[in-house]
Automatic annotation (TrEMBL), chain A:
This is Signal peptidase complex subunit 2. It comes from Morchella conica CCBAS932. It holds the Pfam family SPC25. The keyword Membrane applies. Component of the signal peptidase complex (SPC) which catalyzes the cleavage of N-terminal signal sequences from nascent proteins as they are translocated into the lumen of the endoplasmic reticulum. Enhances the enzymatic activity of SPC and facilitates the interactions between different components of the translocation site. GO terms for cellular component: signal peptidase complex. InterPro entries: Spc2/SPCS2 (IPR009582).
TrEMBL record, chain B:
It is found in: Endoplasmic reticulum membrane. One of its GO terms (molecular function) is serine-type endopeptidase activity. PANTHER family: SIGNAL PEPTIDASE COMPLEX CATALYTIC SUBUNIT SEC11. The chain crosses the membrane at residues 20-38, 148-165, 171-187. Keywords: Endoplasmic reticulum, Hydrolase, Membrane, Protease, Signal-anchor, Transmembrane, Transmembrane helix. This is Signal peptidase complex catalytic subunit SEC11. Catalytic component of the signal peptidase complex (SPC) which catalyzes the cleavage of N-terminal signal sequences from nascent proteins as they are translocated into the lumen of the endoplasmic reticulum. Specifically cleaves N-terminal signal peptides that contain a hydrophobic alpha-helix (h-region) shorter than 18-20 amino acids. It comes from Morchella conica CCBAS932. GO terms for cellular component: signal peptidase complex.
Length: 189, 190
């Protein structure tokens, strides 16, 4: 039983996050296997940094500043190195990637972004097909109004059509995609 | 379910474990970054409490209640040649901790070497009539610079510390502030 999410249509992050969240379940239903490495590395770096801070807090609290200040120095250095690594990972490695998955040897990576004060969903899909050289990248964009109604309820059908239309390996010529192709104003760029 | 809806947190219900962990991580990183910045400053200044707020009027007119003070505790120079006798000088304002609940900010009015301690200080509040011997532990006539002083004042910002006075005198404000900040972090996914 799937509940239909409702968002504040005036909040761009809510529109983007809700839309992002819809991609993985849909691709899963099509048989794609999601790869969580990017997220897992981020979580490991982040929680390792927090663990250092936690241990520092414990010793500082129980033994006092003077007794442990030598160790505190190294903990502070290690913490900020990890924090820098985390920032680097989020900005340069993840870079807005919200999905990495694979099916039958086809690996797709999807990253999305929005621009300030613009209700347009930008999606960049990188596919690696078996037997081809190098990744194949397409960029698509479409207005959030295509899959959110005026009350802010997410409407799955047109969004699935947009995905099928946008992701090359999904171009299964499903009836949904063809029927809605004229409605979703996707722009090739 | 209805509770989350009432709080405007219904979005949380849709999150998968990794997304929940990511949100928890966001909160933990904010708290730990604040803590580690504080500890970094402590280590850099060699002071357990490098920023303090003035709580009393005993140093008026130099400092008012609510002033934020920045401390430096690397000016000890305890074991220099006695003829040069470096370290904290008369006229400097120091913050010390002699077992009272809160640290005290007062000016150095006299200094001398002790038999066992290389640098001792006598302090007095500018706005007080008497020196601080009354405030020291019974039978003690001086401050041990190394053990009891947590730093010399090297800079200040007027009034901004009043926020913390408000928060500590009205503890419910602190709780409310923490709860509000926590909820905001939890709900916002930016």
């Amino acid at each position: 039983m799937e509940t239909v999410p409702k968002v504040n249509i005036n909040a761009l992050p809510a529109l983007k996050n809700t839309t992002d969240d819809m991609i993985a379940p849909y691709l899963k239903s099509l048989g794609y296997k999601q790869n969580h490495t990017l997220t897992d590395v981020r979580l490991v770096i982040g929680f390792a940094a927090c663990a250092i801070a936690g241990v520092t807090f414990y010793y500082d609290w129980t033994a006092g500043f003077e007794a442990v200040k030598g160790g505190t120095l190294y903990a502070v250095i290690a913490y900020f190195i990890l924090n820098t690594a985390l920032t680097f990972w989020i900005w340069l490695v993840e870079g807005g990637t919200i999905y990495v998955g694979e099916k039958d040897g086809v690996k797709i990576t999807i990253s999305t972004h929005t621009e300030k004060h613009s209700p347009i969903y930008h999606m960049k899909i990188t596919s690696v097909l078996p037997g081809t050289s190098g990744p194949h990248t397409v960029e698509e964009k479409s207005s959030f109004t295509n899959w959110f109604d005026e009350k802010g309820y997410f409407v799955a059908k047109p969004f699935k059509a947009f995905l099928q239309d946008s992701i090359p390996s999904l171009a299964a010529k499903s009836p949904e995609a063809i029927a809605l192709k004229s409605k979703t104003k996707s722009v090739k760029s | 379910m209805s509770l989350l809806d009432l709080l405007g947190l219904s979005e949380l219900k849709r999150l998968n474990p990794r997304q929940i962990l990511s949100q928890v991580l966001n909160i933990a990183l904010i708290l730990s970054t604040a803590f580690m910045l504080w500890k970094g400053l402590s280590v850099a200044t060699n002071s357990p409490s490098p920023i303090v707020v003035v709580l009393s009027g005993s140093m008026e007119p130099a400092f008012q209640r609510g002033d934020l003070l920045f401390l430096w505790n690397r000016n000890l120079d305890l074991h220099k040649d006695p003829s040069s006798f470096g370290g904290t000088q008369v006229g400097e304002i120091v913050v010390y901790n002699v077992g009272t609940a809160i640290p005290i900010v007062h000016r150095v009015v006299r200094r001398h070497q002790g038999e066992k301690t290389p640098l001792n200080l006598l302090t007095k509040g500018d706005n007080n009539n008497a020196d601080d011997i009354e405030l020291y532990p019974r039978g003690q006539w001086y401050l041990n610079r190394e053990k009891e002083v947590i730093g010399s004042v090297v800079g200040y910002i007027p009034f901004v510390g009043y926020v913390t006075i408000m928060l500590s005198e009205h503890p419910w404000m602190k709780t409310a502030l923490l709860v509000i900040m926590g909820l905001l972090v939890l709900v916002q996914r930016e």
